[in-house]
Amino acid sequence: MIDVRAVTKILREGSRFLCTMHKGPDGDGIGSAMALAAAVRAMGKTAVVYSEDGVPRMYHFLRGADRVVREVSSADRWDATFVFDCGDLTRMGSHFPPKERAGVLVNFDHHVTNTRFGDLNVIDDHAAAVGEMVYHVVNALGVTLDREMAEAMYVSITSDTGSFKYSNTRPETMRVAADCLAAGADPWLCAQRVFDDQPLAKLRLTALVLPTLELHADGKIASLVISSEMFAASGADQELTEGLVNYARSVEGVEAAVLVRETPTPGTCKVSLRSRGTVDVAATSLVFGGGGHRAAAGATVKGSLVDIKNRVVAALISQIRA
Ligand SMILES: [Mn+2]
Q: Is the Cβ–Cβ distance between 137 and 167 less than 8 Å?
């Protein structure tokens, strides 16, 4: 567990704090920032959550979401600026304060690759979510968890553990989540907003994409494709393709999956690759000029939809036979 004393000292001594995360925030980034800000406000101090891209729709239900700002004045000075869930400082918003206004830069994160960019680095790469770390700070401050803090922490934790499914889920993670529920977090509300709710256009797109499922290499590889016509017919945009490749990977016996989709740029497709961990799809994506992780990778490729699908499937086949 992290040593929270340096953080609690900063929070007890200062009075104005900025909480932020990288652009395009996910549930852990926004949830952990909102949870700490709520705790600071409960101490009678000022905390501002800054997210240049605002709060993604699925997190609007969190109490305090309407207080998140998309810009901060260049006249504002802070006693400390907290950066949550960022391995490095590359994707900060354009209003991120320069050193002379930021105060103490607190790097509050759980990525094993963290670059230690802060004046104070609070990093626990065993924590399933940054929200789990915030919980320990709030506890050490003696602030009583309320529903606003608890629900933000719970969203942070369920986001990064895929609702307690991923292997980063520890007994400690469950204990923190249990305290969040005891403090009033509504698990069904959070699960619906974060995991279940989807725009109708996405369901319509899914219905068009699933019939394109093909199995290759004795069922070890699965493919899906999305044509421009499917986007037009469903009303979905490229963003709504998020997660669709997992349908291909979810087929029993499938080791690696690919989804190829046409983009608005004619003759250019996006390739999404997933594996269960046995096949290194990052290696496959490199062949096509992309990159990523062992179990999740992608690439942007020029060519026709079917041709690219066939080439990627061929590369995956040689990969599993290597
Ligand atoms: Mn995270």
A: no
